[in-house]
Amino acid sequence: MPTNTPTPTTLNNPRGASVASLAAGIVSVIVSLVPFAGFVFGVSAVIFGIFGLKSKKNPLWATAGIIIASIGIVISIIVSTIFIVAVSSLEIPNQS
Predict the structure, then answer these.
(1) Residue-wise over 36-68: b if at least 16 C-beta within 10 A, else e?
(2) DSSP classification of residue 10
(3) Which of 20, 32, 44, 88 is the most exposed place for a label (fewest CB within 10 A)?
(4) Tens of pLDDT, residue by residue, the chain (96 residues)
(5) Other CB atoms closer than 10 Å to residue 11's CB: what's the count?
(6) Domain extents for the chain?
């Protein structure tokens, strides 16, 4: 009689990190127009991509995730810089 063994989770599944890298990379590009949001997803996608490359399973997906996440990080840094410059140039009216 076979025993019910639990299925591996994403952390134990070597393909999971590659898929997570690609998914987070795509999300980082989509959300990169929101200041600082694309950066968070981009960094997590790069971390998952590194784990995916180390596991040697689906290295193409992990590499694609890292490349797409890098694009999202660059766009997010540009948008965040524009946002910071725009906010810092606002004049606050005197309340006197």
Answers:
(1) ebbbbbbbbbbbbbebbbebeebeebbbbbbeb
(2) T
(3) 88
(4) 566 665 555 455 557 888 999 999 999 999 999 888 889 999 999 999 999 888 877 789 999 999 999 999 999 999 999 999 998 888 777 776
(5) 10
(6) 14-78
